[in-house]
Amino acid sequence: MRISERRAKKKREEILKSAIAIVNKKGYEGTTMEEIAAALLMTKGSLYYYFKNKDDLIFQCHNFVLSKAVKDLEKCLRAENGVSASDTLKKMIEIHIYYAFNQKESLNLIIEPKKAYTGEYLEPVLRLRKHYAGLFDEIIERGVTQGEFVVHEPIITRQFILGGLNWVQQWVRPNGRLTIDDIIDLFAYNILKILK
Amino acid sequence: MRISERRAKKKREEILKSAIAIVNKKGYEGTTMEEIAAALLMTKGSLYYYFKNKDDLIFQCHNFVLSKAVKDLEKCLRAENGVSASDTLKKMIEIHIYYAFNQKESLNLIIEPKKAYTGEYLEPVLRLRKHYAGLFDEIIERGVTQGEFVVHEPIITRQFILGGLNWVQQWVRPNGRLTIDDIIDLFAYNILKILK
Amino acid sequence: MRISERRAKKKREEILKSAIAIVNKKGYEGTTMEEIAAALLMTKGSLYYYFKNKDDLIFQCHNFVLSKAVKDLEKCLRAENGVSASDTLKKMIEIHIYYAFNQKESLNLIIEPKKAYTGEYLEPVLRLRKHYAGLFDEIIERGVTQGEFVVHEPIITRQFILGGLNWVQQWVRPNGRLTIDDIIDLFAYNILKILK
Amino acid sequence: MRISERRAKKKREEILKSAIAIVNKKGYEGTTMEEIAAALLMTKGSLYYYFKNKDDLIFQCHNFVLSKAVKDLEKCLRAENGVSASDTLKKMIEIHIYYAFNQKESLNLIIEPKKAYTGEYLEPVLRLRKHYAGLFDEIIERGVTQGEFVVHEPIITRQFILGGLNWVQQWVRPNGRLTIDDIIDLFAYNILKILK
DNA sequence: GATGAATGAGGATTCATTCAT
DNA sequence: AATGAATGAATCCTCATTCAT
């Protein structure tokens, strides 16, 4: 029981990972169950053994990666040592860009949830996204409290910052003139200019 | 001929405008030819007299709006009076947000062109977008030249700024707590903080 | 406009008639859109030009024939001349058996509507059936009023009678020992025995 | 062997009983192997250890119930005490209605066997049904022989009566205005009117 | 120019069935 | 005996596209 359950979970993750790659290449509507199955050398029907339907599968793709990213951000945010808000934020920017870049295939923050998800799946997606965004609110607030940041309308500012960060997936290409670390530095530099 | 040509052109624009409204609401994949036709009290078939196919039509929607936005931006950029770079940029931000707000989907800069457009349509879209972005580069450069802005790596900074601006589409809702004008002010405020 | 409308209606009826034959041979679930289309030398897709979906098509099949039967029964019931209730009823039996026999392919009173129809289609089917049954109630009631019939619990009795009549489709075969007219006579004889 | 055989038989019956309940609720096509298995806390696959395939299983459901009904009818018919044909018939009506009411679908005499059963299963079903009907012929004949009934064309009359009885399935609902016993009385009353 | 009608290529989903373990 | 997993055929339905009139 234990074993088969674990095996099933592993398989589910395997499917998710493969599906994520396809979804991010072709988009939500552009991806077919057929294609996902084929990439795994399975048949369409088998997918339905592991996922209720396409919406479910795609939803779990999104969830899978976003949850991981959230966990990373939270760890960074909860670090107990006396790190300044600026440094924590910079670390968070790094994490975000890491996901957007290395896991581009998996964390599509760009798609509009309302178009991609319906009914029962929409709400959890929105919740998770809100949570994700909230982590940035938290660090901004902390910076303000500690007198490190000066922010007018923090929510709008956070929206602006996240927009800039998300946009990375649209244009950053590996092997560009600048390294990822360069970009992270520049972004952090710009963002701190806004917040100070 | 002349007359009929002109009439056809007018009809084409009429279709575009109606289609844009629908695309804005339902998105690219969510829009059907049927729906576009119905809204104009035409039949599906007739659309094919004016547009080669759906991709063509949607492409032209995008083009139509983006071109108008470009024209607006250019007019603002070319205004000969001695406006400061800051003020010009603020005006440009206003224009962008206006379009992002009112023409949501047809000016969907968030869409990855490589996903949405194929073959003959991809290249013009990319070109126009590059042009659009270039207008922001231009104003930044001007500000730098005139000693008004101080920018490190202007392209990266512009990408960041445009990201923040494009993202507006995803979250600005009419009747929110803040008015569009408030948001424009806040965005300009933040952006100028980066650039100064 | 007139013409094309009329042509469409004719086509719709053509489809219905063909579909009716198939549905009655294979049953509701056993019939596929493919099959219906093939029988008409059309493609599946075309059916959807005329009918919203399978439920709609099947519903209209049922409706088409049942409505005709109802009309026939009503004409017979409303005949102004001083026909006795017995004679009217006999005529109605004849009509019912006529449909069950000659139009066996089309009037399947046997299928359980609740299983075959869903949502929006169930209610009209039930209503029409109730109406059909009501016509028999009417003649029974008339007979009672006129002192011609003596009936205890007319609804139950009518249910019993209609059951016996509907059953005809299960066993009457053309070219049996008895003619249809024989069967009608025998049924009328038995039914009148119940009612008198 | 003996023991395991007996255990298998018991299991088979257990499955049948559970399946019958489901089939009664959802009908032949509406029932899935999955569902039957789930109700028994088994998996789909296991069912195939006990039954060749779905047709087999459903056929045996039908058989199981119909055989029991036949047995009940026969017991009633063979009762040696000097019961009148009328009383025997009334008892048979009671049995039929009891089954029609409680075992709705699995004793679905309304289903056209040729539609539901194929190949090897069709013939036994037809045979059993014929036998079932024959029991009613028998009592009618006995009544005639004993001078209790007067029947013209007994086969047609029996068809009519059985039709009325089978139809019960379609309309009797628990908690109606009349009790089952009321309905049995009324049916018997009407049927005897025909036969006398 | 316009349209009614038809088409056909998919795509999601269901489910009976199989089979290695 | 049982099951988890996989399969594939079948089925409904959508929609861009075509074309004769």
UniProtKB/TrEMBL annotation, chains A, B, C, D:
It comes from the Bacteria. Keywords: DNA-binding. It holds the Pfam family TetR_N. SUPFAM superfamilies: Homeodomain-like (SSF46689), Tetracyclin repressor-like, C-terminal domain (SSF48498). One of its GO terms (molecular function) is DNA binding. Residues 32-51 bind DNA. Gene3D superfamilies: Homeodomain-like, Tetracycline Repressor, domain 2. InterPro entries: Homeodomain-like_sf, HTH-type_Tx_Regulator, HTH_TetR, KstR2_TetR_C, Tet_transcr_reg_TetR-rel_C_sf. Residues 9-69 form the HTH tetR-type domain. This is HTH tetR-type domain-containing protein.
